[in-house]
Each structure stands twice: as C-alpha cells, then as structure tokens.
Amino acid sequence: MGSIIEVFPRGSPRPDAWRAVPLPGDGHLRVRQARLEDYAAIRALQREAAPHLPGSSLKQLESQRLAFAEGQLVVLGPDRIVGSASTLIVDWNDHAQAPSWREATGDGSFNTHDAGARTLLCAELLAAEGRGPGVARSLHRSLRRLARKLNLRRIVAPARMPGYHGVREEMSPELYAQGVVWGSESSAALQAPLADGFQYCGVARNYMPEDLESCGHAALLVWLNPAYSPTEPPANLEAVRPRKCA
Questions:
Q1: Angle between helices 39-49 and 58-68 (to 10 degrees)
Q2: Sign (positive/negative) of CA torsion 9, 142, 44, 27?
Q3: Within 13 Å, how many C-alpha atoms sit on residue 95's CB side?
Q4: Is the Cα dihedral 173, 177, 182, 184 positive or negative?
Q5: Which percentage of the chain shows pLDDT scores above 90?
Q6: What's the pLDDT at 67?
Q7: How is residue 9 annotated by DSSP?
C-alpha cells in the first residue's frame, strides 16, 4: 500500500520533506512541512471539506508554524496540494476530562504547544475530495513517523462526525460512532483513521460547537506509539541537553 521514505539524505538542506511510494489511484504523493505560501491552498481545502466552518486565518497559520513547524504538513499531488494536517504537542491530562478544540489549540493559535509533553494532538486533517484514502494514509504515516522521532506516547486525533446530524434524533453520538466502528454506519472521516491503526476511545461532546454537521461532537481516535520509552525525554529536548565536558 506504499510507504513514506526520506527524499533528502541526512545532512541535506531540505530535511522537511518526504515522498510517498505511489498508491493505487493516487499517483505520486509527497508530504512536506507547510509554508506560508501554502495558506491559500490550505484554506481551499478547508472550504472544500467543511464550508460551514470558519477557516484558519493567515495569522493563525503563521502562529501554528512558529509554535511547531515540524507538525504542520501538506501533501503534494501531481499538480497541487491535496491534503494537510495541523498538529501540536499537549499534555493530554489537561484536556482529557472535557476535550475542547478551542482550549486545546489556544483557539487555533497553538500557543498551548508544549514541547515537553507526550501527546501529539491532530487539530485538523484534510484531504481533497475525490482523492481516495491515499492522502489521509500518507498524513497518518507521517504523523506516526513524527511521534516515533519525538518519542511521544500517543497521537490523539479527534474526528468529525458529519453524518451524525441526520440521525441525531434516533441515537446518541456514542452509538453513532460505535455503529461506524462496527460497520452499521458509514463515515469516511472515522473510517480512514480506523483503517490506519487508530483506535476508537469514545466521543468528545461539544468538542467544536460550531460544527453543526457533527452536532458539535467528535470521535476520539488514538494511536499508541509502540516505540515510546518513558525513561527518555522527548527527542526534541535532546538538542538542548547540557553536554558533559571532558
């Protein structure tokens, strides 16, 4: 099904990019860090995926890059950007009781990013319409690679439930999400990460109240890093660890 490999060797001036082995129906996909000039393309993806939700401002995008550039990714297709992901590192214990997108992300500014914490929070993941699962798969694999590199304990990826508003009078959001897991309900937003190894862990009620299609709720999906070592600091702290003098 393809895999992500480094395009540039160690020591190259462009360590922020990877390419994906071609996936059936998706052509060549390449994942790299987002840049300021990608703003228009990311906004277009946001309008395409959820036109009723307010998109990110240029100020928010720049703030996200300044907070955690390594966690802001885009997927390049043959002719345009076809996917993106925005992530930050948080202490999940601060949010686990009542997860809220606004609180966890600092209202999209990512000023809550904590490089010393252990959870990679996927604040947003977008794929262009009609691109199939390949774009989401490439992003999921890149995020897992990042979690391993930084020795993070888990990835938490709250997923929208855009089909829930149509059945809200018939079932709870938890029952709807369980139906997707069991196959009795259909939701691409949940099925893609589940197919990529994420586990369903419940519903975050009122996670994003403005998401009317999901009635404000989100399914909590989690991937646990099997390479995580609790005895080692996050990898990005190694660079600032004092060196011993001979």
A1: 110
A2: positive
A3: 26
A4: positive
A5: 67
A6: 97
A7: P
Query: Is residue 115 pLDDT above 60, yes or no?
Result: yes
* Long-range Cβ contact pairs of 97-100 (< 8 A, separation 24 or more): 98/204, 98/206, 99/158, 99/204, 99/207, 99/218, 99/220, 100/204, 100/206, 100/207, 100/208
In 3D, which of 168, 164, 192, 196 has the Cα closest to residue 177?
Answer: 164
**Spatial distance between the Cα atoms of 185 and 182, rounded to a whole number of angstroms:** 8
Predicted TM-score (pTM) of the model is 0.83
Q: In terms of Cα–Cα distance, which of 175, 94, 80 is closest to 129?
A: 80
Domain ranges across the chain: 4-235
What distance in Å separates the CA atoms of residue 188 and residue 50, rounded to the nearest whole number?
14
Alpha-carbon Rg for the chain, nearest whole angstrom, is 18
pLDDT 10s digits, 37-83? 999 999 999 999 888 888 899 999 999 999 999 999 999 998 899 99
Which residues, in sequence order, are CB contacts of 199 under 8 Å at separation 6+? 221, 222, 223, 224
User: CATH code for 4-235?
Assistant: 3.40.630.30
236 C-beta neighbours (distance < 10 Å), count: 16
Calpha distance 71→139 (Å, rounded)? 11
199-227: pLDDT as tens digits: 999 999 999 999 999 999 999 999 999 99
Phi/psi at 69 (nearest 5 deg)?
-60, -35
Name 108's Cβ contacts closer than 8 Å, sequence gap at least 6. 56, 57, 60, 63, 64, 102, 123
